[in-house]
Amino acid sequence: MLDAAGRPLVQVENLKMHFPIYTGIFRRHTGDVKAVDGVSFQIMAGQTLGLVGESGCGKSTVGRAMLRLYEPTAGRVVIDGEDVASMPSEALRKKRPTMQMVFQDPQASLNPRMTLAEIVSEPLDEHTDWTRDQKLERVYELMDQVGLNRRFVNRFPHEFSGGQRQRIGIARALALKPRFIVCDEPIAALDVSIQAQVVNLLEDLQEKLGLTYLFISHDLSMVRHLAQRVAVMYLGRIAELSPSRDLYARPLHPYAEALLSAVNEPDPVLAARRKRIILKGDVPSPANPPQGCNFCTRCPKVMDICKTVKPDLVEVEPGRMVACHLYPAAGSTGASEAYERNQQGETQ
Amino acid sequence: MTDVSTTQPKPSSQMRDIWNQFRTHKGALFGLVTLGILIAAVLIGPYLWIPEKLSVAEAIKLKNQGPSLRFPLGTDQLGRDMLARMLLAGRVSLAVGLVAMVIAIVFGTFIGILAGYFRRLDSPLMRLTDMFLALPLIPLLLVMVMLFRDRIAGVIGPELGAFTLIVFAIGITSWMATARIVRGEVLTLKEREYVLAARSIGAKPNRIILRHILPNVVSPVMVAATLGVAEAIITESVLSFLGLGFPPDFPTWGRLLFDGLQYMQVYPERVVWPGLAISLTVLSVNYIGDGLRDALDPRIRGR
Predict the structure, then answer these.
(1) Helix (H, G, I), strand (E, B) or coil at A43
(2) Quick check: B212 and A111 CB within 8 A?
(3) Which of A5, A103, A117, B62 is surrounded by the most beta carbons within 10 Å?
(4) How far apart, in whole angstroms, are the C-alpha atoms of residue B29 and residue B18?
């Protein structure tokens, strides 16, 4: 929120990540799991983009494909002016320090046979030719930054609590002074009390170091707290991308509406009035998504056009992008009352 | 959390932690001491215990003796001193067992890691492994010995030649189990998040393998290694028995065991001594492996 409205640090254009399916004795390529199917967004320098959606919608895959932990099928990922998705591997290695990742499960993301010092200095081993003392100095500095006692330097991951382990993961991500960090559900595996600590730590670090985050989560209230803009994903595509204040006040896409109706309301008066939208049916398989809008099989406001034409993500109000046929593209404002309820039997 | 301690602990060397943990494992200490004694005995023993030279007539008179002060382990059917033969035999058997095990483990781990980590190499390397598994061991060794024994013996002498050939032959035919175990382990390890994290840092594959994968496949490799020693010693004796290994008058523990087999009902101690030596070696290597595996795992260490 420092220098908002700056230039975008991260630009993702039409990112696709398809995992091939091989079947039969000849392992023939018979289809693809379209985990991410054409995702575009940008993140301004120093800001946080929240990425929310239910399990299996491709949030983590977006994060990993952006850092080239998977080889994206198509699309561009421009980070700080360079397209990461098509970089040759040696250039990519040089580029890695600018982009780092904090993983979901702090237990699994730390090698159980390495001490804290070894884990945090691993990035330094890879990218610097510092002496041991210099590295150690930096490790201490990072430990101070993330709030770990210096006495812990020789301990192994299993000797820490979940929150401390996540701090180690954050320290490792910070070691090379990155500009962009993908936080892949960094708080999902933590206690609620620890979640707040870690989120506050991430906020403090952003303020101090001017970091840019992609914050992947399914905890909607945490995203609201942390992110300036939020993208709602459903089945490999972005359903809605809006400033977080607008999204939480008035979600436009029917899926975003349903998702946000699931957020708990602390105020009992409001909670009593809260209307929970319960979606029927299951998420379609990403190997065989519907021909039209991905959400058309479960959408409470489905129309005929939804079943045949995939809606594009278009700006419907200033700053708000929605992929839904209910909202015509920008220009004609305030078209949100254009509900043409179509009583299709199978979806209610 | 805000305690900025003035004494900044340096990263300590892990060797001492490992040794401290190893010491708490009683079996491992027993194994280390026993193996140490065995190795010391076969290395130094032949210089300290020099059997007296006997004429043929004396030897025939003194054959098949029980243990006595003159012959602590008795004599064999040709009147030779068993203790001296046991000590000499131990040199060969221990060397064959340990070296063949090291060859098999290093080669098997190497193949297993390549196959598990690099998807493109997986299929060819595993088919190679299957091929080796399908090869019948004894005929293969027979062919190898027939082809190469004289040539190698010509270059480095008959005994060293036989040793090299046997060690190589045993090593090359016993790495497959290790390779398979390691491959399976690597396949699961490389999907772990910390390997992903290392890749996101930009670590090269060799660094990832050395730092993240290899240390975590230690335990299954350790188990395979300890079993390998026993197997190598036994295989060597089988080979010698078939006349493929060392010359017949050249003692090894396996050889002594087979020689004693015919007299087992009359002179059981002829089988007991080499059998005991082999068992002790295997047992101690096993315990050392066990202790080492525990000591190398920081989750068990310090408990």
Answers:
(1) strand
(2) yes
(3) A103
(4) 13
Residue in B253, B290, B262 with CA at minimum distance from that of residue B89: B253
- Helix B269-296 vs helix B14-24: crossing angle, to nearest 10: 130
Res. A274: pLDDT tops 80: no
pLDDT in tens, A110-166: 988 888 888 998 899 888 888 888 888 899 989 988 888 888 888 888 888 888 899
pLDDT range class, residue B110, cuts 50, 70, 90: very high
Please name the amino acid found at residue B145: V
pLDDT for position B10: 61
Instruction: Mark out the alpha helices in A228-305 (DSSP H runs).
Output: 244-249, 254-260, 268-273
Instruction: Examine residue A346 and state whether it is found in any structural domain, yes or no.
Output: no
Alpha-carbon gap, residue A97 to A111, rounded angstroms = 20
Please indicate, yes or no, if residue A348 is contained in any of the structural domains: no
Chain B residues with at least one Cβ partner in A under 8 Å? 1, 3-5, 8-12, 14, 192-194, 196-204, 207, 211-212, 215-216, 296-299
Q: Which of A122, A124, A128, A142 to mutate to test the interface with B (most CBs of B within 10 A)?
A: A122
For chain B, domains (ranges, CATH) are: 24-47+73-296 (1.10.3720.10)
Does residue A218 lie in a domain region?
yes
Does residue A2 fall inside a structural domain? Answer: no
